[in-house]
Amino acid sequence: MRILKVNEDSIENILSDLLKRSPNNYDGYQETVDEIIANVKADGDQAVFDYTKRFDGAEITKENILVTEEEIKEAYDQVDDQLIEVIRKAIKNIREFHEKQVQNSWFETREDGVMLGQKVMPMESCGVYVPGGKAVYPSSVLMNIVPAHVAGVKNIIMTTPPGKDGKVTANTLVAAKEAGAGAVYKVGGAQAIAALAFGTESIPKVDKIVGPGNIFVALAKKSVYGNVSIDSIAGPSEILVLADETANPRYVAADLLSQAEHDEMASAILVTTSEELAQKVSEEVDGFLNQLSRKEIMEKSLESFGYILIAKDIKEAVDVANSIASEHLEIMTDNPFDVMTRIKNAGAIFIGAYSCEPLGDYFAGPNHVLPTNGTAKFFSPLSVDDFIKKSSVVYYSREALEPVHKDIEFFAKQEELTAHANSMRVRFEEE
């Protein structure tokens, strides 16, 4: 891996390289995505079937687009019992974590006849997109469906691309059933996002679309935003490890590669105060590459977006971490809890040598749908909040409104909104 000293130019260049991975920089695909969305919006099911045949090689019709109970049962027969047990343990952890995020409605009554409050309600429906392609991610099924369930969403439907045989991967189906998906439809890509956003004869329109996907899915979510809500426009995966001389180089190298294997656009960065650790980690990475599968993907990822940065001290290392605002941040230092208090920007923070990133991906409980491409500076992980909506509640009695109505009329007139002022005035015109 490249080893660089931290300076203003090196950080600026790295940030520039990382931002090139953002879906916002792939406008060349937008025309294709817009065409798919327009056709699905106009032709409904038929467009979905045509695109599924074209892109996935599967013959999908209105008779087989919805996964049946028989297909789910067949999936359970194909999945290892041990995996089912692990999925159930993970669901328990994910549910317990997200239950702590639940918000309740509140109302405050005052003696002067005013009642104010906030009504918290779940969305009626949501669509969960689950990718296929280079890898199968039943963990993403759990992370998107469980918080929606905890929030109280009634209708949770899932879309995922089928194989050429017209079937959904067994692991994905089992995860969907265990997590509580109400229905699973065999459609992927931008056409799935369009179907969820506008509805077709077979697929119902939803209020919100969540879940990761390829560049076509990301751009489609961006395009339909406003017709429906979305969680975020996710970019490629990324990890930043912040370490000092006390860190185990094998652990660090293994964790960097755990993200580099996602795809060629993934980013893996080590920021360390130790030149010795930097060299050892680079050597360990080379050793692991010869042992692990997906070697070609990891090599391309590291070549394009892999860095080892040497900082002069922990303060500078923390500053670098906050500037990059990585999706996943691991802290392996002598006092990781102290360092954690200084982190301002990160999707998820993993503290200490035994809190490796895959723990968060699969099992610990916090959501693994996280902000990428520096958006951790202003976005948060997927949560129960993403599946609720809030309404403000206002009640004033006549007695409460009477002493303030002239203030409100005056305010409205200052904005030259005379109808606003009149709405208030008519309630007291007999005076």
TrEMBL record:
InterPro entries: Ald_DH/histidinol_DH, Histidinol_DH_CS, Histidinol_DH_monofunct, Hstdl_DH. NCBIfam families: hisD. It is an enzyme of class 1 (oxidoreductase). This is Histidinol dehydrogenase. Substrate binds at S237, Q259, H262, H328, D361, E415, H420. SUPFAM superfamilies: ALDH-like (SSF53720). It catalyses: L-histidinol + 2 NAD(+) + H2O = L-histidine + 2 NADH + 3 H(+). GO terms for biological process: L-histidine biosynthetic process. Belongs to the histidinol dehydrogenase family. Keywords: Amino-acid biosynthesis, Histidine biosynthesis, Metal-binding, NAD, Oxidoreductase, Zinc. Catalyzes the sequential NAD-dependent oxidations of L-histidinol to L-histidinaldehyde and then to L-histidine. Its cofactor is Zn(2+). The keyword Oxidoreductase applies. The gene is hisD. NAD(+) binds at Y129, Q191, N214.
